[in-house]
Amino acid sequence: MESSNDLPGLRLQAEVWEEEAAELFDQIPVKPGWACIDVGCGAMGVLRPLSERVGPGGRVLGIDSDAAAIIAAEQFAEENELMNVRVRQMDIFDGDLDSETFDLVHLRFMFAPLGRDDELMARSLDLLRPGGVLVVQEPDASCWNTMPPHPAFEELKSLIVDAYRRRGGDFNAGQRLYRMLDRAGLQKLGVRAVVRALHGGHPYMRAPLHFAALLRQRIVAANLTGAAEFDALMQTVDGIISKPDTGVLTFALLQAWGWK
What we know:
Elements: H1 7-27, E1 35-39, H2 47-54, E2 59-64, H3 67-79, E3 85-89, E4 102-108, H4 111-114, H5 117-127, E5 128-140, E6 145-147, H6 151-166, H7 177-183, E7 187-194, E8 197-198, H8 207-221, H9 227-242, E9 247-249, E10 252-259
Parallel strand pairs: 1-2, 1-4, 2-3, 4-5
Antiparallel strand pairs: 5-10, 6-9, 7-10, 8-9
């Protein structure tokens, strides 16, 4: 969610949430023959569940502004024989896509880091055909913690959330999704929340440490904490997560959709 240059992290995150994406698309439901776009697809995105549901008569386009992510997404599509998937390096704000092109426009972890709600919503709706569905997935950090909870984890989480806020984003963007879609004039709104409980050394348990490491320079530069204090906090949280009897409850992933 933090950087398109972090391809292993993006791939792991997409794998963790892929089953929930599939269930979401079945609930909508996504239909054979649809034209879909996955905005900010990264190394994998939701290309596979969309591809499986639109079938041979449909098409899926994945776009990302990062060249390395697009190369990785191309390899993913080829390895999984997703014949109806194409990917392009493109910024949604500067791309040359025609208006009212897609039956489904999907965005995940785009509103949280960018903080350009009005622009992103307007561009997404512009790409959507009348009668099409906009699907957005964003995080809510309210329940994000170790099991059992630990104050050091709460402190690290607060630094991550604050770092997002200070650069114009909102890690808790998921809390605003329903209202955003409603105010955009979408109809037949739906919303659901999913959370993963991780244990046994699952690699995604380390996601908060990973996010914080990527944000370290911003956190220290903003004087949210000193460099030495930050590094000590990271070591403490690392030790907590590494204990065999500790689990991690992920942030809640809020999924919202509505029809144009």
